[in-house]
Design brief:
Elements: H1 8-11, H2 25-40, H3 44-53, H4 57-66, E1 71-76, H5 78-82, H6 86-89, H7 92-100, E2 103-105, E3 150-152, E4 157-166, E5 176-186, H8 195-201, E6 228-231, E7 249-254, E8 261-263, E9 270-278, E10 281-286, H9 296-302, H10 306-313, E11 316-318, E12 324-326, H11 327-333, E13 337-342, H12 349-357, H13 362-370, E14 373-375, H14 381-385, E15 392-394, E16 400-406, E17 409-414, E18 419-429, E19 432-437, H15 448-453
Parallel strand pairs: 1-10, 13-19
Antiparallel strand pairs: 1-2, 3-4, 4-5, 6-7, 7-8, 8-9, 9-10, 11-12, 13-14, 15-16, 16-17, 17-18, 18-19
């Protein structure tokens, strides 16, 4: 669906009429220049959507934020916007929430990649060094700290761990790491471009098809199973119930050194098709509109973790008001957590026999589940893979979980020695993160006093 059929020349003069809290001349000029640049680059629907959300308080706050500091933008094509359902495109408040999930704090440009051709998509930039320099995801009030696959050594230098992986799809459940290397470089932001350069870099060439001179920037992305994550502007409560009022995260990766950058946790295969820089924005064209994370049930269904889903729903745990509720409802109500979910093949005959033997002991079953669960903390895979924070964590049952990464993958170990491998990291949900593992951690140990202080 078209968000607007009016030409930009008619829309721009109307901007001051819709900006009661966005009326400062500097911000108004920035918005007009941004819409002109988007229109010139062929992102007419995104320009129109920007105009639409500027009529809402939330949209004005978003647009005011992006005019300050550096941001990475994932910009849907016009065709992608036309496929957006009318209940989103026709609702300016909901549209603003969706668009806020496309803006990520910091400039995730691959500073070590150089290409003198303006043609080509988001591939060919595996590994490399991002222009961001922090191992922490930015909170909703920060403007440049982000979580990626980089380990930061100072505010200006990053050490990046990269891997070569074999994969079978954009979001495969298994991957084999064959080597690891490190690269160090200074992270420098380049934020200068004009609308004409913006248009040229997106491949609007002469009829002869000759390449334009200049650099074609590329997004930084870890090579799967390494994931890159950033904190977005999305903080609407329907999509974001993370701990500490943190805004929602976005995850992306690439299938190989020359593979396209793929956005994870989406119903369709969404990839970066080209990138450029305009003023303070590193803009990456994508072939779909990003859908914010759903709840635990939605995620388990999407990842086909149906056996674990049934197991979780069969367990009764104490609720906050003192009554019992299903573990599924408990997880839906939590605010910030990390859950390690075994995939269907992990429930072998032997495992199922063990679980069946515990059916009459809900306390033991609950402890087993809670030893797959870290309460109050959303731990994304870069923190685990980097082996810095966390090296060890305490589960909601009060037992310990330890993590180790080697050339064969990333593994977790329960306090009793039960181990599993993470085979699909960073399944984002509205109130935490899920990592799919290949085995059930058969650990019924619990320590309530340790759990209460964790």
């Amino acid at each position: 669906m078209h968000l607007s059929s009016l030409p930009l020349s008619l829309l721009l003069p109307l901007i001051p009429l819709f900006t009661p809290t966005f009326a400062q001349q500097q911000n108004a000029t920035y918005l007009q220049d941004l819409m002109t640049a988007l229109q010139s680059a062929g992102f007419s629907e995104l320009a129109n959507a920007t105009m639409t959300i500027n009529s809402t308080a939330n949209g004005q706050a978003i647009l005011s934020q992006i005019s300050q500091g550096n941001f990475t933008v994932f910009a849907p094509t016009d065709a992608a916007f036309r496929n957006l359902s009318s209940d989103i495109s026709g609702n300016s408040t909901r549209l603003a929430e969706y668009l806020s999930y496309h803006f990520v704090y910091g400039g995730f440009q691959n500073a070590s990649y150089t290409n003198t051709s303006s043609s080509g998509g988001g591939g060919g930039a595996g590994g490399g060094v991002p222009t961001t320099t922090s191992t922490e995801i930015a909170s909703s009030t920060e403007t440049s700290s982000v979580l990626s696959t980089a380990s930061t050594t100072s505010t200006s230098t990053s050490t990046v761990t990269q891997s070569t992986s074999t994969v079978t799809s954009s979001e495969v459940s298994t991957a084999t790491t064959t080597s690891g290397t490190t690269a160090t470089a200074s992270a420098t932001a380049t934020v200068t471009a004009t609308a004409a350069l913006f248009e040229r870099l997106f491949g609007r060439q002469s009829s002869g098809g000759s390449s334009n001179s200049g650099s074609n920037p590329q997004p930084y992305a870890g090579v799967y199973p390494n994931i890159t994550l950033g904190r977005t502007l999305l903080n609407a409560t329907e999509w974001d119930q993370l701990e500490g009022n943190k805004s929602q995260a976005l995850a992306w990766t690439r299938s190989g050194d020359n593979g396209n950058v793929t956005i994870l946790n989406q119903a369709q295969n969404i990839t970066v098709i080209n990138s450029t820089i305009w003023q303070n924005l590193f803009i990456n064209g994508i072939n779909g509109v990003l859908i914010p994370p759903g709840n635990v049930t939605t995620a388990l269904t999407a990842t086909n973790a149906t056996t674990a889903q049934s197991f979780i729903s069969s367990i009764q745990v104490p609720s906050l008001n003192g009554t019992n509720e299903t573990a599924t409802q408990f997880l839906q109500d939590a605010r910030g957590f990390t859950l390690f979910v075994p995939h269907n093949d992990a429930f072998t005959t032997s495992v199922n026999q063990t679980l069946d033997g515990l059916r009459s002991n809900q306390t033991a079953l609950a402890a087993l589940l809670m030893n797959h669960y870290i309460n109050g903390t959303t731990i994304y895979s870069p923190s685990i893979v980097n082996n810095s924070s966390p090296a060890n964590e305490t589960t909601a049952a009060g037992d310990s979980l330890s993590f180790i990464t080697n050339t064969t993958g990333t593994f977790i170990s329960a306090g009793n020695g039960s181990t599993a491998q993470i085979v699909r990291p960073d399944v984002l949900i509205s109130n935490g993160v899920i990592h799919i593992i290949d085995r059930v951690l058969i650990d019924e140990d619990s320590n309530p006093s340790v759990a209460s202080s964790a």
